[in-house]
Automatic annotation (TrEMBL):
Organism: Streptomyces scabichelini
Taxonomic placement: Bacteria, Bacillati, Actinomycetota, Actinomycetes, Kitasatosporales
Name of the protein this chain belongs to: Peptidase M6
Length: 121
């Protein structure tokens, strides 16, 4: 289970999951919910990042992957609407392009923790 971001250190448990995809690269998964710094997020779910440590800063070492690339959200409130609906929502799945890593968002508890299955291969 992955709970949304810690709010003043009160939440415990896994907050980020990582799958190594290469010597200098990983796919990271973060729970996004309306708590703490994310209190005004438009879409809740599991946000996916591609991290490449060999890429220099300013050239995109961290890339947010959009689970809904054909849509956008929160045109009036979001800094970048094309990624406002990027998280994988409850009951959805997403396969990371070019990596063979698949994420399924299976459940969300009353406390806000997300149950996800990550597979590769």
């Amino acid at each position: 289970r992955v709970p949304p971001g810690a709010h003043h250190g009160k939440l415990r448990g896994t907050k980020l999951a990582v799958v190594r995809t290469g010597r200098d690269s990983v796919i990271a998964f973060e729970a996004r919910g309306r708590v703490g710094n994310d209190g005004a997020v438009c879409s809740q779910g599991v946000l996916v990042y591609r991290v490449r440590s060999e890429t220099v800063s300013g050239s995109g070492p961290i890339e947010v992957l959009d689970a809904h690339p054909a849509s956008a959200a929160c045109w009036e409130d979001s800094v970048y609407p094309p990624l406002a609906d990027a998280p994988i929502g409850l009951g959805e799945s997403f396969t990371v392009p070019g990596e063979g890593v698949r994420i399924e968002v299976e459940n969300r508890t009353a406390s806000g923790a997300w149950t996800v299955t990550v597979s590769s291969g």
